[in-house]
Structures are given as structure tokens and as C-alpha cells.
Write the C-alpha cells for this entry.
Amino acid sequence: MPDPSEESRLPPGQYIPRGRPVIHYGRVPQFRPDRWSLMVFGATATGGEARLSWPEFSALPRVTVLADFHCVTKFSIMGNEWRGVSADTLMRAVPPAAGVGHVMVWGEYGYSANLRMSDFARETTLFATELDEKPLTPERGHPVRIVVPHLYAWKSVKWVRAVEYLVDDRRGFWEERGYHNVGDPWREQRYSYQEDAGDGPSWFGHDHIT
Ligand SMILES: Nc1nc2c(c(=O)[nH]1)N[C@H]1C(S)=C(S)[C@@H](COP(=O)(O)O)O[C@H]1N2
Ligand SMILES: [Mo]
């Protein structure tokens, strides 16, 4: 039976499917702890890049976030309990330079998604290592995925390997392929043709224009 309280939490155009779909583009990578690192680069406060090893990342404090998860293909997975390192904790460990307005989150094999700093810095944005009290399964992003529950789920990059601080916004993998630069499910920001002025990267600051 559908749970009426869950139905009432659905953003416009979304439905609750049977089961919990898993979707991504490409293969599931293998996790090798000795080779894994999380790189933080781009416009850092120090100007240099930082690399957290698996033990270093694992030593950061954890939070729990209870949230629904909305895929732009219209299914929503309700009531997920994510546990991991908040984006805020990572930003304190490796602070951005003044003037950083966006971040690019990079997964294995070059998948990426861009976020406004205000979305990255939300209390509920985290680098999750667990879902519903169990380590993430390989296909859900083991060992670490970012979860940005208030945006469409393509922004919740699985198998995260790097965070790039951006002074000038750039589009990520799906944002370059016709999806909305911001991706707020409550405003049904699915496609780039729905963007308002200011939602997408500025044309200034692009090398091919200057
Ligand atoms: N690295 C990576 N992360 C990704 C994707 C992907 O193709 N590669 N797909 C995204 C999309 S479109 C969705 S809906 C969610 C699906 O997450 P799930 O498999 O845990 O349901 O992962 C997102 N994160
Ligand atoms: Mo998706």
C-alpha cells in the first residue's frame, strides 16, 4: 500500500516506484583502499590541492541525514537514511578561496555534476558512506557518494573522487547534455531550456569568447 505521508512529500511530476531502482551511466568501479583518495582542487584557500587518503577521510566526523531522493526520470526513493561526512566538514578541512561560488563534484570515469556553493553547503549535503545503516553497495556508490537530497539525483555523484572549487561555474556531465544547471525538483527544473538568467554559467569568462 502506498504510504499517504510519503505521497504528500513528492515533488511535482514524481512517483514512488516498486523497489529501489539503481541507475548510472557506465560500469561500477572497483574500490581499492590503498589507491583511493579524495582530491580537493581548484580555487582552494591555500592555492594548492589536497588529497585525503581513505584512512584520513574515514577519520572525519559523521552525520546522519534522513531524506527523499528524486530522479529526473520521475521516480523518487523515499525515506533514505544516509550517513557520512557533511560537505561542511570537508570544506572546513580544505577551505575554498574567497570568490568560490560553485563546486564540481567528480566521480570515477569522469562523471561530474556542478553545484552552487549554497547547495553544496546545505546542512543536508553529505559525502555518504552508508545507506540505511549498511555500507553503500558497489552499485550505489561504494565507498563514497555525495548526496544532495534537495536537488535531482543526477547531482548525487556516486564513487566520488574529487571536489573542484570553481570561481566560474561550469556544467557537469548531464548539465552539458541538456539538463538544468540547478535541478531543483520542487520547481521542476529538469531541462536547460527552462533556465532563467543567472541559473547557468555566464558566457563571460569562457576562453572561446574572451
Ligand atoms: N558516478 C555516477 N553517479 C551518478 C550517476 C552516474 O551515472 N554516475 N547517475 C546519477 C543518477 S541520474 C541518479 S538517478 C542516481 C541514482 O542513484 P541510485 O543508483 O542510488 O538510485 O545516481 C546519480 N549519480
Ligand atoms: Mo537520475
Remarks:
- Residues 35-194 form a domain with the Sulfite Oxidase; Chain A, domain 2 fold (CATH 3.90.420.10).
- Residues 205-210 have pLDDT under 50 and may be disordered.
- The CA atoms of residues 58 and 85 lie 9 Å apart.
